[in-house]
Amino acid sequence: MELIRKYFERWFELTDQDWQAFYSKLTKQNFPKKHILLKSGQIENNLSFIETGIVRFYIPKEENDLTFAFAFNNNFVSGYNSFLTRKPSNYYIETLTETTLWQITFDDLQKIYKETKIGNAIGRQASEELFLKKSQRELSLLSETAERRYLNLFTERPELIKEIPLKYIASYVGVTPQALSRIRRRIS
């Protein structure tokens, strides 16, 4: 819980009253490995903060899923386009490890926006983080090689990447598992 407060306090000061209002709307949820947090066709109802764990975003395909994002400890995670538009998601979100999330519902976040002085700053910070990650991913796909995308992921969270199956990493960087093996051999 304090991780979330410290996260926000990197950008702005939270009064105890504002923190209490926000904190009172959060629920802590523990999920096992391989738990589906959001299915295609469902409307995302939670903005979540990962206390511990790794999640992946993917589109299921017949042969291999298309993994397009990962989220790690101390980051926000949400099917954010569905969360904002209140329309069904067209992808899945799944835990790759045992995962602990602090969640706030869409309706409760709207109350925080209205009832607190700091609510909009909290929402803006979460949405900016999610937007920046999406933008960085798009630019990476357009301008970097698969090897560079792998190295970036490895640099971002070297201690956690060991928890992600290679087939998901290969999909994320846009290559086959065999091509990823060649990349890994070349850079080691």
Helical residue percent? Answer: 40-55%
Give the biggest beta sheet: 4 strands, antiparallel
Q: What spatial order of strands do you see in the largest sheet?
A: 1-8-3-6
Total individual domains: 2
The top-level CATH class of the largest domain is Mainly Beta
Full CATH superfamily name of the largest domain: Jelly Rolls
Number of helices: 8
Mean pLDDT, all residues: 90
Strand content: 15-25%
CATH architecture designation of the largest domain: Sandwich
- Low-pLDDT residue intervals, each spanning 5 or more residues: none
C-alpha geometry: globular
Between the first and last Cα atoms, what is the distance in angstroms?
Answer: 38 Å
- H/E series: HHEEEEEEHEEHHHHH
Return the structural class.
alpha+beta
* Gyration radius over CA: 17 Å
Write down how many β-strands occur, each being a DSSP E stretch of 2 or more residues.
8
The CATH topology of the largest domain turns out to be Jelly Rolls
Describe this structure in words.
With 188 residues, this protein is of the alpha+beta class. The chain folds into 2 domains: 2-143, Jelly Rolls (Sandwich); 144-188, no CATH class. The protein contains 8 helices and 8 strands, in the order ααββββββαββααααα. It has helices at 2-9, 16-23, 80-85, 106-115, 119-143, 146-156, 166-173, 177-187, and strands at residues 27-31, 36-38, 46-52, 55-59, 66-71, 76-77, 92-95, 99-105. The strands form 2 sheets. Strands 1-8-3-6 form a 4-stranded antiparallel β-sheet. Strands 2-7-4-5 form a 4-stranded antiparallel β-sheet. β4 (55-59) and β5 (66-71) form a beta hairpin. α4 (106-115) packs across α5 (119-143). The chain is globular, with a radius of gyration of 17 Å.
